[in-house]
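Much of what follows relies on a compact textual record of a protein's fold. A record is reproduced here so that you can trace the correspondence yourselves:
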Amino acid sequence: MSENGYGASAVRTARDAEYDVISRVTRLLRQSDRAGGSAESIMAVHKNNELWTLLAADLAEPGNALPEDMKAGLLSLAGFALRHGHSVLAGQGTTDVLIEINMSIMKGLRSGGDA
């Protein structure tokens, strides 16, 4: 592998892909208006809502191999993130908790353990 310039880091896992997507969305949230009033903030919260909707759909799939208790916890977290995202869009909250949730999930993905 080293002959063609690729090292072991060229091997990407599904966990790496999930981390990258959550990281990009979190970066959008961090760079936007915390109160959700700007166009950038609305777009960032919308992207976060899309992310959590996709994660919830994946968690609900019969073939999802995560332990049942972890799936239940993540589905609950997805519901909370979506509700809070709608609150931010309605001017009734900030993106801070959404960022914290995403950062916690990213930490869990990197550590290989529960978020």
